[in-house]
Design goal:
Elements lengths: L19 H14 L6 H21 L4 H16 L9 H21 L2 H21 L6 H21 L2 H21 L6 H21 L2 H21 L6 H21 L2 H21 L6 H21 L2 H21 L6 H21 L2 H10 L1
Amino acid sequence: MKPSSTSPAPTSLFAPLGFPDRLLTKYQKASALVSKESFPKEWAEIRNYIGRNKWEIGIRTESDKANLFLRESEQASREALEVYTREQLPQQWATTQNNLGIVLSNLGTRTGGEEGAKLLKASVTAYENALVVYTREHLPQQWATTQNNLGTVYRDLGTRTGGEEGAKLLKASVTAYENALVVYTREQLPQDWAMTQNNLGNVLSDLGTRTGGEEGAKLLKASVTAYENALVVYTHEQLPQDWAMTQNNLGAVLSDLGTRTGGEEGAKLLAQAVTSYENALVVRTREQLPQQWAGTQNNLGAVYQNLGTRTGGEEGAKLLAQAVTAYENALVVYTREQLPQDWAMTQNNLGNVYRDLGTRTDGEAGAKWLARR
């Protein structure tokens, strides 16, 4: 099973507000004092900020209430657009369209099936609306931000969609990220550049995984390049969590490339994947980030398993034993009670390694491995 790559969240054009619950109360009180008829611009501005705060609360909420806050955020943005029209107030209209796109993207990501796809398509429409005003010539940074956000939605839609249509959506994501990188340069905006490089690496990885032969390998190599670009800025010292995220993503692509490649070259790529995952685990510790630690341990186990099955004798058995250790580590966090699907996936992976060890081990020791399976 190929590990999923991770991306930073879409970018809002509002500055972070902090304490959104307290601010929401203040804006709601102000809203009661300002009518749409008497003070339309002020009313729309308050609706916009209410939407922003409800979005912030929604993405921080783990319970079923999260979707309720996000839906209310969507409604507040749509109300602001009754006043913020493209003709009268184009920049406010575009900003609200961008932020509406973010809310719809969050809702779509959380929602499965047709309804989720519908929300994501509505997010695309909102971002494309914003780009009518946010042009590269007149507002380059806002244009790049919205292009990056658009790329994220296209990727989400593409990963949900099979066949040619899904590939087309993923290619649209690549185009949007490449557009953003015209403005997000390493020299001028290094963190935005690194974020978008990581995002580009993710979608190139998705495309490469779907594509066989030389073309697929080419896409995966381009993904490796994008992640390595991101790591120029995402250093362990300066941005440890971003560094660990990108190291984990890089490990996944190197693992995929290594699996496709035979002989010494394939083994070399898999060894590089091990290094990337071990780098990620420097930051993704069991104490600080238990679920991310478990995910990376599971990924590491898969690479050790792959290396072990390729390698004969004592060395191969040693690699398979390291896969067992990594999977067992993951199961400390991936419990049947708390994370049943992850637990089942890792148990299945572990059972496969026990089988591999059992079939290559003679006598009683081999029988013991098979019995554990």
